Amino acid sequence: MSTAPTRDAFLGGRLVLSQPPKGHRAGTDAALLAAALSPGANDTVFDLGAGVGAAGLALAARVPGCRVVLVELDPAIAALARGNVEANGLSARVAVIEADVTAPARQRTAAGLAPNSAGMVMMNPPFHLPGAVRASPDAYRRQAHVLPAATDEAWICAAAALLRPGGVLALIHRADALPRLLTALAGRFGDIRLKPVSPRAEAAATRLIVRAVKGSRALPVLLPPLVLHEPPGGFTATAEALHRGTAAIAWFPGA
């Protein structure tokens, strides 16, 4: 990072985040990912590719008592995540691990990502395959947005290895990544619940929130879309609640 980080309000002002002034910055994707899981008070959730900790910290703020492990590869960004944990008074429940999610299993275990040790995993993996977009000159943004030699499957394999049988994975991705996500999840996860996210009611989905259960054989479920904005452009009531951390994604509507 070439310039000093900014301090920004997040989750409707419930959190303050130090983050790089340019490149990848916390926003809607992190807020929606945080709303994708509802752990119990004593559950531990691993946030893979956590960045400065926005999604994991938002989850910890929404669910008092749960524990969160932020997993980040970049040492400078991991340092910001540690500072954010302390600044928001969450040191007792949130830890930071520096680790490469796509590293070989032995290296992941040595870093603290032991197989079958997690009940829940959340992640916002890089969105783009190499060559699909023009890579950003900002190293952090490039790392956060573009997959290197690894693919989505490497991230999903890492999550599957970390989760216990019956454990829950939640992720957010581009809507057009659906085919390759389903391919990577097949044989590892079932009960795959898909929540499209549209900027407006009449617009095509741009994001996809996914919830899946390790080892389940239940069939996939396509849920009604989450619409973010209503005329003349403000958040819908549901989107506003998700951004403020006062609601969670309804994965089982009517249950």
UniProtKB/TrEMBL annotation:
Residue intervals of the Methyltransferase small domain: 30-174
Keywords of the record: Methyltransferase, S-adenosyl-L-methionine, Transferase
Protein name from the UniProt record: tRNA1(Val) A37 N6-methylase TrmN6
Upper taxonomic lineage: Bacteria, Pseudomonadati, Pseudomonadota, Alphaproteobacteria, Hyphomicrobiales
